[in-house]
Each structure stands twice: as C-alpha cells, then as structure tokens.
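Regression test attached.
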Amino acid sequence: MAAKRSVEIPRGLTDPKRWPGYLAGMATETAYVAALIAVAFAIALVARVIWP
Amino acid sequence: MLRPRFEDHLVIGKYTGKVIIGVGLLMAIPLVTSLVFAEWDTAIDFVIGMAACFVFGLATQIACRTDKDLEWSHGLVVASGSWLVATALGALPHYLSGHEGSYLDAMFDVMSGYTTTGLYLLQDLDHVSHGLNMWRHVLTYAGGQGIVVIALAFLFRGTAGAYKVYVGEGKDERLLPNVINTARAIWLVSLAWLAVGWVALSIAGLALGQEPVRAVLHGLWVYMGAWSTGGFAPQSYNTMYYHSIVYEVLCAIVMVAGSFNFALHWAVWTGKRSEIRKNIETVSFAITLTALVLLATFVLAREGVYSDAVILTRKVFYQLASGHTTTGFATIFSRAFVTQWGPVGMLATTIAMAIGASACSTAGGIKGIRVGVIARAFFHDVRKMLAPESALVRTTYHHIRDVALEDPIVRSAMTITLAYVVMYLVVTVAGVVSGYPVVEAAFEGVSAASNTGLSCGISVPSMPAALKVVYILAMWLGRLEFMSVFALVGYGVSIVRGR
C-alpha cells in the first residue's frame, strides 16, 4: 500500500519557488470539499421537493 | 524479539525516552500560554508535567546507553509503548487542574487527544484555563502528526532505524526518499494549512463579534481540532457554539483536508493536481460520504426534522463529514442523534465513522484505501467469473501511481479490516454489557475505536470505569492499527516468560 517515491527529491522544502505550487494544491483540495458540499446541497434540495 | 536480549531492552528504552522528552518539550507551549495569561496554578501543573517527562526521558538515556540501531520489532514496540507512557505522563496537568474526576478520566482525555479521538470526560470545559485548553489542542494536533513524527523531525539525528518507528505509528508512506525529510514534509503541509486555517477562523470569529484575543485563540484551537481530525473544541457546545455557516464551512474544509493522505497532499502540492479526482482514497471517500448523506438526508427530510434545505445540508453534511473524516466536531447536541436522527441516522453516522478517511493521515477507522481495494477486488472477481476461462483479467487502482491489484494487497486490506470489525464488535458488546442500548453502544464504541469522537451521550464521567478502560484501549489500538500494539504485547509476554 505504500507509495515509496512519489515526487522528485527537493533541494529545500521551503524554497519560495515552491510556494505557488503549494497554494495551488491547497486551492485544489478546497475545491474538492466545495464540490462535496454542493452535491450534499443538491441532495437536500431533492429531498425537500419529495418531502416538502 | 521473541527472545529479547538485554540490548533489545536498551534500544527500546533509549528511543522511548527520546519520544517522551519530545512530549515534555511540547508542554512548553501550554506553559508559556499559562504564563502569558497569568494562570500561575496551571503553569505549575505544566512544570510538574515537564519535569516528569524529562526525568523519565533523561533516566532512560542514561540507563539505556547503546549504539545499536532500531530493528523493525523495536520500532513497533517503541511506537506503541511510547504512546502509553506519553498518556500516563501527559495526564498529569489534566489531573492536577482539578477538572478531572480521577486519574483514569485524565488518561482517557489524553489518550483521546493523542489518538485524535475527541471524546472527553473533563468537567466544566467552558471554564478551564487557557493553558489547559492549549494543551488539549496541542495534544490532538501533535497526535495527528504522530508523536513519533515529532521526535523524528526534531530529535532523531538521521538514524537508519527511524523509519521503523514511523511505520510502527501507522504511517507507511514515504513522501520523500529520506524518512526524516518525509516527517518534515508532513509538518510543512500541516503548518502551511495551520497558517491559512488559523487566520481564516480567527477572522470568522472576529466577524462573529468575539474579542480579538478570544477569536485568535478559538481560531487556533478549532483549527487544531479540525486539521488533526481530533474534534476537541474550547467550548462544551463544540462547534455548534459559533452558530455560523462560515465557521462550519471553514471547519469542513480543514477537517476534510486534514483527513487526506499526506502522500496525496504532497502529490497535489507538487503538481499532480489530477491526483485528487483519481486517487482511490478520495474517490472512495466521495462515494461513501455521498451515499450516506443521501440516506440520512432522505430519512431526516421524510421525518421533517429540519425546516429547509440549507439547514438540512448544514446538519447532515457536517455531522457525516465529521464522522467520515473521524473528526468528531458536532453542530447538534449529543442526545439529538438518539432523539432526532433515530436508528437510521445513527447507523449512517456509525458506518461513516467505521470506514474513516485516508491512510497515512491524521484520521482513524478502516480507511478509504482498504475499502477501495476490497471493492476493486470484489469487482475483479465478478469480471473474472464473467470472462472466458482463457482471458487474463487484470485490475489496477490508482494511489499516486497505478498499482496492480494483487492478492497480498487484498489480503492485507482484508486482515486489517477484519481486525477493525472485530474491535467494533468488542466495544459494542462492552457497551451493551455496561447497560446501554445496542444502537447507542455501537455508535459510541465505533466512535472511540475509529478515533472519531462523536458522542450520543455515553462518554460522561459517570460511565463505568471498565468501559472507560475499554475505550482507552480501543482508541490506542485503532490509532496504531494493531500491529505495533500486538508487538508490544508479545514483547511484554516474552519478558514475563523469561525469554
């Protein structure tokens, strides 16, 4: 189950050049959660239509 | 290790001591907090706690001098043993605060913190000192990263055996080739999210009208509870205290992000953005969460428990996402699970908690990757049955890279899943034997064993002491995923048997 080596070896984990990539990663993760919330809301709307 | 030699004891003692020194250093954070807010009694509690950790840690460094490096079995014993010692010593400030009914209650709360469970027996939570509240949340934040990861990142100096302790703590992913750098990368991800999440929650608190210092402290503590999927909050009403949709959305984002595999974080953060929609864990999580939300939403809508779609989403999604990520944040009262959600709502939440989130994350439970692998194996077998006899059926799953589904992977997933199911049954039976209805016993027991922390009202100071011990053991076993605990038990048995 282990992914032994997922990315290249970094020279410095906190190198400023890496931060735009890190922030884009955080935004991607936030979008995933937003999509889950949107689906839950759509389910709630359908439920309210069926059981007003 | 089935026949431990004297040198084995020295290695285990030495590295356990290092981890406990790390725990003592962590107590500096609540100590400083107490001093800043002039909470002198609390500060003394932490000085005593730190002293106990340092005495233990330094005594083991002196008594267990050895140049021998860790072997796999040592790593497993150190990981599980150090969690027990850390719980016993970390409970000192809790007990000395006067907010705990007994030392067992204090150990329950500390084990709950380290294991990111979130159940607590602490009394009068709304009036505990800032220092103790800080300690509760530092415990759960540090426990989420793994207290061994802390020691790896800051105390171990490039030992070749460090990876063995890291694996013993239930994390088996190497984000980077070097395990020390892996531990540091985990901290980088956590600290970056800390900066963003803390600021966002503090601003939300200010917008709600909290005093600036209170908004900042609550922002920090709620962030720590969410990211670590711990579920501790500074108020007894948990996150329902804030009555804010913005606060709830922020908590949901942080707790779901906190439940991601650190290898997934690292892949997404280093350019593999599509990983989030292809990874077996995020796919599995999205499917099971949506299915359970659908079930609970329809049942609660049919019963007319909530008045409109927004409230329905806020209540159902939040509790189920909290359960599925094994966080334990709640925006309903504990007893509302019984009185409003009913058996089907509680069943949906129990299933969410039992499955849990991602491996190698701060979350507990069976884990999405195992559920995904077992589902894949099931469909693989169906395809094999339907295919011509001569056909070669090959199945893969995606986790950072495409992995061929092979029998050892499926067997490993099935073994651990079976161990969790047995543990869930045992804690449920323990609850029933203690006099609780089976649905409530299953809900609370699975919550403890999956390190979630949602409660339907069983975990209170007056609960039977034996059930507290069962829950403490379940939290410990669930967090470390059995193997290192079994190694510790085997080590103990071999000592008792005199080799």
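Expected vs. actual: identical. Residues 1-9 of chain A have pLDDT under 50 and may be disordered.
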